[in-house]
């Protein structure tokens, strides 16, 4: 098989040729135009005795399967019979399975016209050719995100800038902002709101090497790129996300005891210009308990209309694990280097122990029992293996969209009009985040159902300044009196007043303080370091990048996370059942150790799944068939990828090589008259022809 398959030109050869001599050979009545001619009689005699006349169609099918697709298409121009055979869907199914290494048990994708059309789609309609290389960033490019209308995309970089681009060819800068003016170290994440009128930008503050302080800024996109509000965000890798069109989520972290903290999620107004000090601009949404130095990270919100139809009869939410890992030696982390690759994980800092740190680094060379074997072909990435229920449900989820819950009005310009009504008639949602319970590195996916939100319309002013001063003075007097009393006398005083003596909370015992926190509805442990998550367009499926731990590894110290594999797994979770329905093992590469692991973002569109990797490539899989189709070259780590939501044939990749590359399909490049500047590496893993023909 040649490296380049048949192109769209060959696929347009639909009709048979008007010159059909083999078709005439099948007619025993002969040709009237050749009767009376010795030459015509000879040709007729030859045609009637030609072996091609007597070959049955199954034999033709077997012969065609020995041909390459382009050769079979050419053969189909010979006559009407061959043309009909060249469009036989059985043959194209064999070609499709052989050419793209698709499991023979996987049927045709729901909604697809034929195997032939699917072969054409994976040949002509996959982002394959590089049409733009954008080099305006002066440092590593960490993230890219598209607007919902597909007209813009935003990039974040360690140079401190956020840049908004026009996605039409050739891509040009629409707006930009240097966040270093606001004491940011760099920008790390961005997201457009549903109406594409606002842009959320998340970043990291300047500070000590191990600072976890971050901030979220909101910019207007229409009628000028203006800073609208700023919200604190800690730790910075909580990222932040849009909750609705005019409200966003941020986080805060409070340490309660050794290795124990609480993560508070805040619901913030995107417009914080208020007329009164009594008008609230944010409200606490949830407060979660964290153990073993873990915290809430990478929050996202999924619109789940099916939750409104379910009965709320499962009150026994699965809370965090109660595993106890205390009294162990603390570990250490290296100081963060500004030239360090990727966006590193925020983490809890303890007393440094250089010997333990050296053991971590040496652990990369230890022969650990990972349940994986090296790929036979380093140029090929593993397929996604789905459970049967995924493909049974695929057709329904393929045509349904959670956007029905949202007001998708591209012409909406009056932001304030919907601000007070933005949280009314809220579509049921899932709050999704990564967290941990055994160690500080995120290894679990948490889910919290959100059915309604009450945002106060007025802040309770509380006591006046005079009243607060008087209350403070009384408390001080009481403290002086209590210091002169014994514990028994204090206890008797409370008993005489029919009050319960105040007790200091035992934060290390979750059961003792559980009533002070919100419960997580569901936790899914992936037994590996979670480095990225992405939702399908209909918000039905969650795709997760994870670097697995060694099999049966026992964590003895939460500050000593397990070594992680150099391969990235992709897990697929059905948000309707909250169960894993697909897994891709040993998918793509990552090399950094657990203490330096950073985020590798992935993206999902209707037809494809794409992800960055540390091997200087991004990868793309067909979402339904699960097979890897191509990989995209860079000169350094690929941190993020994003599909154009209105055009699945356009993909943007960003890298530590400071470059942004835009990839389009062969069909789109030809339609737009673009001269490609490069081409991706295409995966066409063929079996032997003999095997394929059988």
Q: Which key phrases capture this entry?
A:
694 residues, alpha+beta, 5-stranded antiparallel beta sheet, 31 strands, 19% helix, 29% strand, disordered N terminus, disordered C terminus, WD40_repeat_dom_sf, F-box_dom, WD40/YVTN_repeat-like_dom_sf, F-box domain-containing protein
Report on the structure:
The structure is a single chain. With 694 residues, this protein is α+β, with helices and mostly antiparallel strands. It contains 16 helices and 31 strands. The strands form 7 sheets. Strands 27-28-29-1-30 form a 5-stranded antiparallel sheet. A hairpin with a 5-residue loop joins strand 19 (528-535) and strand 20 (541-548). Helix 8 packs parallel to helix 9. The two termini are 17 Å apart. Residues 27-37 have a biased composition (Low complexity). Keywords: WD repeat. WD repeats lie at residues 134-166, 631-663. Residues 1-40, 310-349, 397-421 are annotated as: Disordered.
């Amino acid at each position: 098989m040649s490296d380049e398959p048949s192109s769209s030109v060959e696929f347009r050869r639909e009709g048979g040729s008007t010159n059909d001599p083999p078709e005439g050979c099948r007619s025993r009545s002969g040709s009237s135009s050749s009767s009376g001619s010795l030459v015509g009689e000879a040709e007729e005699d030859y045609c009637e005795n030609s072996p091609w006349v007597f070959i049955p169609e199954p034999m033709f099918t077997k012969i065609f399967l020995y041909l390459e697709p382009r050769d079979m298409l050419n053969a189909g121009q010979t006559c009407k019979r061959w043309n009909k055979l060249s469009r036989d869907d059985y043959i194209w199914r064999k070609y499709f399975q052989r050419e793209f290494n698709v499991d023979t048990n996987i049927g045709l994708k729901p909604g697809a016209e034929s195997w032939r059309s699917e072969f054409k789609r994976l040949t002509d309609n996959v982002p394959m050719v590089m049409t733009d290389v954008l080099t305006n960033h002066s440092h590593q490019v960490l993230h890219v995100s598209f607007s919902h209308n597909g007209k813009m995309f935003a990039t974040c970089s360690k140079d401190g800038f956020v840049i908004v681009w026009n996605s039409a060819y050739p891509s040009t800068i629409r707006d930009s902002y240097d966040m270093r003016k606001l004491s940011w170290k760099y920008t790390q994440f961005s997201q457009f709101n549903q109406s594409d009128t606002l842009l959320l930008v998340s970043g990291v503050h300047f500070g000590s090497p191990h600072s976890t302080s971050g901030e979220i800024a909101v910019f207007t996109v229409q009628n000028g790129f203006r800073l609208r509000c700023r919200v604190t965000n800690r730790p910075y890798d909580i990222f932040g996300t849009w909750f609705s069109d005019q409200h966003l989520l941020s986080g805060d972290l409070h340490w309660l005891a050794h290795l124990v903290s609480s993560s508070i999620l805040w619901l913030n107004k995107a417009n914080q210009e208020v007329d009164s000090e009594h008008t609230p601009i944010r409200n606490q949404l949830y407060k979660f308990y964290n153990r073993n130095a873990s915290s809430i990270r990478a929050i996202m919100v999924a619109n789940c209309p099916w939750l409104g139809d379910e009965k709320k009869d499962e009150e026994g939410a699965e809370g965090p694990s109660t595993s106890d890992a205390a009294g162990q030696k603390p570990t250490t982390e290296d100081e963060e280097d500004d030239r360090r690759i990727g966006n590193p994980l925020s983490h809890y800092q303890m007393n440094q122990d250089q010997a333990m740190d050296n053991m971590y680094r040496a652990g990369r060379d230890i022969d650990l029992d990972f349940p994986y074997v090296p790929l036979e072909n380093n140029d090929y990435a593993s397929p996604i293996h789905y459970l049967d229920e995924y493909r049974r449900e695929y057709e329904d989820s393929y045509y349904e969209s959670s956007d029905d819950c949202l007001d998708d009005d591209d012409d909406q310009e009056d932001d304030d009009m919907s601000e007070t009504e933005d949280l009314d008639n809220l579509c049921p949602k899932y709050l999704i985040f990564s967290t941990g319970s055994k160690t500080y590195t995120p290894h679990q996916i948490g889910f919290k159902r959100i059915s309604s939100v009450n945002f106060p319309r007025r802040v309770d002013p509380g006591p006046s300044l005079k009243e607060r001063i008087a209350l403070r003075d009384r408390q001080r007097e009481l403290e002086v009196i209590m210091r002169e009393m014994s514990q028994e006398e204090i206890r008797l005083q409370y008993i005489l007043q029919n009050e319960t003596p105040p007790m200091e909370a035992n934060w290390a015992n979750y059961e003792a303080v559980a009533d002070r926190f919100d419960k997580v509805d569901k936790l899914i442990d992936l037994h590996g370091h979670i480095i990225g998550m992405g939702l399908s367009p209909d918000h039905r499926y969650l795709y997760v990048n994870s670097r697995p731990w060694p099999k049966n590894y026992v964590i003895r110290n939460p500050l000593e996370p397990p070594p992680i594999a150099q391969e990235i797994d992709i897990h697929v979770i059905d948000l309707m059942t909250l169960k894993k329905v697909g897994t891709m093992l040993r998918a793509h590469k990552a090399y950094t150790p657990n203490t330096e692991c950073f985020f590798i973002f992935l993206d999902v569109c209707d037809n494809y799944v794409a992800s960055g990797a540390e091997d200087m490539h991004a990868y793309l899989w067909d979402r339904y068939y699960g097979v890897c189709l191509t990989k995209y070259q860079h000169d350094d780590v690929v941190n993020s990828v994003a599909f154009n939501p209105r055009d699945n044939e356009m993909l943007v990749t960003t890298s530590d090589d400071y470059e942004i590359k835009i990839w389009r399909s062969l069909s789109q490049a030809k339609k737009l008259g673009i001269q490609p500047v490069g081409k991706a590496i295409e995966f066409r893993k063929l079996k032997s022809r003999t095997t394929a023909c059988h």
